[in-house]
Amino acid sequence: MEESENSEVNKMDSHWSKETSEFESRCHNSISHELEILDIILSEMISNIGNSSEDTILLKLRECLGCISDIIIHASQFIDQTQAVEREYPIGVNPLQEGIRINMTKTLTITSKLRERNLLQLLPLVKDLTLDLSEIKILVSRTTLKQIENFLERYRFKKSYIRRKIESFQT
C-alpha cells in the first residue's frame, strides 16, 4: 500500500516538474524574444541617431521601455503559473544576462551620441532605460520563485513612476 502511494506522489512530482519546466521555458523564451526586440531597437537607434528627430528618438525610447514592461509581465505570469509548485531546483533564466549586458552597453552608446547632438533633455530617459535593464539583469539572476516574486513587488512601484515620466515628457 505504501509503495503505491509513493508511486502516486512521484507521478505527481514529475507532472509538476514537467509543467514548471514548460512554464520556465516559456518565460525564458518570452524574455529572450523581448531582449532581441530591444537589441534591434537599440541598434537602430545607434545607427540612425545622427539624423533622427527628437520625436523619433523619444518614440524609440518608449518602444524600449515597452519591451522592459513586457519582460516584467512575462516574469509576473511565470510567478502566477508556478505559485502552487514547490521548487527544489534553481530557475534557469540566468543565461539571459549576457544579452542584457550587451543592451546596457548600447544604451551607454546612445547616451554619448545624444550628448554629441546636444539632446541633453533625453538623457534622463536613456538613463532610466539603462537602470531598467540593470533591474532586469537582477531579475534573471534570481533563482527561486520567492526571490522573483519579491523583485516584482519592489519593481512595480518604480515602473509606474518611470511610465508617468515618459508619458509626461515633452519634446
Please tell me about this protein's structure:
The chain is an all-alpha fold and 171 residues long. It has one domain. The chain has 5 helices and no strands. It has helices at 2-48, 54-82, 97-116, 123-141, 145-168. α2 (54-82) runs parallel beside α4 (123-141). The radius of gyration is 20 Å and the shape is elongated. The chain starts with a helix and ends with a helix. 25% of the residues are buried. Residues 1-17 have low confidence and may be disordered.
Task: Give the topology, please.
Blueprint: H1 2-48, H2 54-82, H3 97-116, H4 123-141, H5 145-168
Helix pairs in contact: 1-2, 1-3, 2-4, 2-5, 3-4, 4-5
Question: What attributes does this structure have?
Answer:
mainly alpha, 0% strand
